[in-house]
């Protein structure tokens, strides 16, 4: 596999692929395979570890002593950053767009366990979080500690290399399995995984449809973000990277009431997936994405006779803050 930049190999790779046969049968559409990127290791940190292998390597090469990133209070990425920093002997500081919790739960509880510093900014927009990260970085510089800022979701050119690698891994696996796939479906948030998967298909010659189920932003935002990451990839790593035009779609029909908001139907579906396949899906990311896939199967977007690879990007600990909503289902 072609090497575009240095990385620290801390993820447990390759992650397995298996057939979700019972779920496929219930949904009555294509065969669904699951790529278990919730099993990348490093304290069950999901897809974020693939990106952070590159970010952490660059941070260490620059002599950084603290990793700074941002997200919501239940951000998988923020928690993964704290875990990776702890694993590598670095400090971490998380700028979180929400109020502090009196008793930390889910990902925020783990942030505390990993020793992360935290700054809470209730109601912050993305620009405010970015500005707060810069202010936090400056405070560490005054202490004599060199900071390294990782953008939201590690969704830049460097972070996206993790999913270019992942597509190479998938192509090798399905080749060994003697199968082809018609579609790849996954949760799309801050856009880095989307950009990496699309770029990976172009780089590795994997011919299939790519559909990101948006959990936060309209499809137009995702399109703009993908072009931004592609521009960075061409500038830094892959000058001849082809255009992504026509190679992917982003479906924003399943955001519901908003990022991190879960409907009763979504909660019910997550419980069904767990009981059918022992898949632990969180209501913010992977659960909403598989729920979206199920909805599109019902609409006929993905058809019987096709094969869909669903990438489970993790988020298991994000289940716990929703315990009250699940109580009625039990």
Give a brief rundown of this model.
This protein has 330 residues and is an alpha/beta fold. The chain has helices at 21-27, 48-61, 76-88, 106-113, 126-142, 157-177, 192-204, 219-236, 264-277, 286-299, 323-327, and strands at residues 17-19, 31-36, 66-71, 91-96, 117-120, 147-149, 183-188, 209-214, 249-251, 307-312. The termini are far apart.
Which terms would index this structure?
2 domains, 44% helix, 11 helices, Rossmann fold, four-stranded parallel sheet, alpha/beta
Give the SSE layout:
Blueprint lengths: L16 E3 L1 H7 L3 E6 L11 H14 L4 E6 L4 H13 L2 E6 L9 H8 L3 E4 L5 H17 L4 E3 L7 H21 L5 E6 L3 H13 L4 E6 L4 H18 L12 E3 L12 H14 L8 H14 L7 E6 L10 H5 L3
Parallel strand pairs: 2-10, 3-4, 3-6, 4-5, 7-8, 7-10, 8-9
Antiparallel strand pairs: 1-2
Helix pairs in contact: 2-3, 2-6, 3-4, 6-7, 6-8, 7-8
């Amino acid at each position: 596999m072609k090497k575009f930049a240095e990385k620290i190999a801390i993820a447990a790779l390759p992650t397995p692929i298996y057939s979700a046969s019972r779920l496929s049968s219930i949904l009555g559409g294509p065969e669904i395979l699951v790529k278990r990127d919730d099993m990348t290791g490093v304290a069950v940190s999901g897809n974020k570890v693939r990106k952070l292998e590159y970010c952490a390597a660059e941070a260490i090469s620059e002599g950084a002593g603290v990793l700074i990133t941002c997200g919501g209070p239940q951000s998988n990425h923020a928690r993964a950053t704290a875990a990776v920093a702890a694993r590598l002997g670095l400090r971490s500081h998380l700028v979180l767009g929400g109020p502090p919790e009196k008793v930390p739960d889910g990902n925020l509880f783990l942030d505390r366990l990993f020793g992360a510093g935290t700054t809470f900014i209730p109601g912050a927009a993305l620009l405010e979080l970015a500005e707060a990260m810069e202010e936090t970085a400056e405070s560490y510089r005054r202490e004599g500690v060199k900071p390294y800022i990782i953008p939201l979701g590690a969704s830049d050119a460097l972070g996206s290399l993790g999913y270019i690698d992942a597509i190479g891994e998938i192509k090798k696996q399905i080749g060994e399995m003697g199968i082809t796939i018609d579609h790849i479906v996954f949760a799309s948030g801050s856009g880095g995984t989307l950009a990496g998967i699309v770029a990976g298909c172009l780089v590795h010659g994997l011919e299939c449809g790519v559909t990101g189920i948006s959990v936060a932003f309209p499809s137009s935002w995702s399109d703009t973000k993908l072009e931004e990451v592609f521009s960075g990839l061409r500038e830094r790593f892959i000058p001849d990277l082809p255009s992504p035009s026509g190679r992917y779609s982003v479906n924003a029909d399943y955001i519901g009431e908003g990022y991190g908001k879960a409907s009763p139907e979504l909660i019910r579906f997550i419980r069904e997936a767990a009981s059918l396949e022992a898949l632990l899906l969180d209501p913010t990311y992977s659960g909403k994405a598989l729920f979206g896939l199920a909805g599109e199967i019902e609409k006929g977007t993905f058809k019987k006779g096709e094969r869909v690879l669903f990438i489970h990007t993790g988020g298991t600990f994000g289940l716990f803050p929703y315990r009250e909503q699940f109580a009625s289902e039990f």
